[in-house]
Amino acid sequence: MLDDRAAQRAQDENTVLRLMQRATGGRLLVLRVVIVLVLLMAAQVYDGSLHALSHWFILGLYAAGSVWFGRAERGEGRHAEGFAWAGTGLNAGLAIYVLVEHMLAGAADDGGAADAVSRLPAFLLLLQTALSMRVWHAALFSGTVVFAWGAAILVGLVNPAGFLGPHVDLGDQVPGLLTFLAASVVVVDGVARLRHAAGEAVRLEHERTQLARFVPDGVATELARDGDLGTARRRHACLLALDVRGFSRLSREHPPEAMVRALLAIRALAHAAVTEHDGIVDKYVGDAVLAQFVVGGPVAQARGALACARAIRTRLSALNRTRAEAGDFPLRVVVALHAGDLLVGVFDDGLRAEYTVLGPAMNTLARLETRAKAADLDIAASEDFLRLLGPALPDGARAVPVAEAGALQPPLFAIADAAVPADA
C-alpha cells in the first residue's frame, strides 16, 4: 500500500512537471531566442582583445546545445532526466564563461554597456532554467554561478593587475553578484512554491476522485483538503444510526414485496436527509442506516446531525400519511446520535475499497441505539453529543434525561421539539 502511494506521488510529480513545462514551452522558446540575441551582442561589443572569436564559438555552442538538450529532455525516455541535467550544466557553464571572460578581457570604455551585456546571460539563463520547472536544477544553476562569480571576484581582489581586463571595476561586479543572488533566491523560491501548489492541486483532485466513489462530491472536496485519505486518519465525527422498529415482526406479517418497498422508502428518506445536512451515508445493514458527519468542526457536525435526525422524524410523519392513504402499514424508526474521535478513511485491502469509520464510538452508538429502542424513543442522543451543542439546543429542540435501571453509561437523552412532550 505504501509502495502504491509512493508510486502515485511519483506519477503525480511527473504529471505536474509535464503540464507545467507544456504551459511554459512557448515562453521558453522566446527566451532562448532572446539569449541568442544577447550572446550575439556580447560577440559584437568586445574590442578584439583576448579570444576575439570565443563569443562566436560559445554562441554557436549554445544554439546547438539548446536545440539538442531541449528536444532530448522533452522526451519521456529513461535518459530524459540526464539530458535535463546536462542542459542545466551547459547553461551554468555558459553564464560563468561570459562573466569570467568579461573580467579577463574587458572591453572598450563604453559607459558600462559591456558590463551589462556580460551579466544578462546569467539572469536570462536563470529564468530559462527556472521555466523548466525543476527546482533543484534552478538551485544548482544559481549556486554554481554565484560560487564561480564570487571566486572570480576574490581572484580579482588578490591579483587585480593580472586578472582584470581594462575598464573592469570590481566595485561594479559585487553589486551585480548580489543582485543575481537575490534574483536567484526569488526565482528558486517561486518555482518551488509553484511546483508545490500544482502538486497539491493534483493530489487534491486524486483524493477527491477517490472519495467521490463513496461520498457526495461536495463532501469529497471538503475531505480531500485534509489529504491522505487512502489511509485511516483520526478525526472527530458525529454519528447517526437509524433502525426500523419491529422490522422482523413486520416481515412476518407482510409479503416480501411490501417490506422491500418499505425498506427502500426508509433508505431514500434517510439518504436525502443525511446528504442535505452535509452528512455521509456510511452503510445500510438490513433495516438499519449508519451515517456520519465529518465535515467542519465538531459543533457544525453536531448541528448537522441533530437537524438531520429531526428532518427524518418530520419526513417520516409525511411518509406515513402517504402510506396510510395507499393502505400500507405505518413505519416507526429510532435514531441514535453520538460523537467521538474515530479512524476515518478509505480502507482498501486490494480486493475491495470502502470509505468508513472505525473506533470505540461506533460500539457506543450501537449500545445507545439498543437502549433508545428499549426506552421507546424516536430520537436519542448521548451526553458527549449534546455537550457539543452547549446548554441550549438549536431551533427549539430540547433534551430530556432518560431514567434507566442500573444507571447505564453514557447517560441517554431523548430529543423532543419544545412543543412536544418527550414521551410523545
What is the topological layout?
Layout: H1 2-45, H2 54-74, H3 80-105, H4 113-131, H5 135-158, H6 160-163, H7 170-212, H8 217-224, E1 233-244, H9 247-253, H10 256-276, E2 280-285, E3 288-293, H11 298-325, E4 333-348, E5 353-358, H12 360-374, E6 379-382, H13 383-389, E7 397-401, E8 412-417
Helix pairs in contact: 1-2, 1-4, 1-7, 2-3, 3-4, 3-5, 4-5, 4-7, 5-7, 7-8, 10-11, 11-13
Could you characterize the architecture of this molecule?
With 424 residues, this protein is an alpha+beta fold. The protein is 63% helix and 14% strand. The protein is built from 13 helices and eight strands. The chain has helices at residues 2-45, 54-74, 80-105, 113-131, 135-158, 160-163, 170-212, 217-224, 247-253, 256-276, 298-325, 360-374, 383-389, and strands at 233-244, 280-285, 288-293, 333-348, 353-358, 379-382, 397-401, 412-417. Strands 1, 2, 3, 4, 5, 6, 7 and 8 form an eight-stranded mixed sheet that branches. The two termini are 52 Å apart. The model is unreliable at 1-8 and 47-51 (pLDDT under 50).
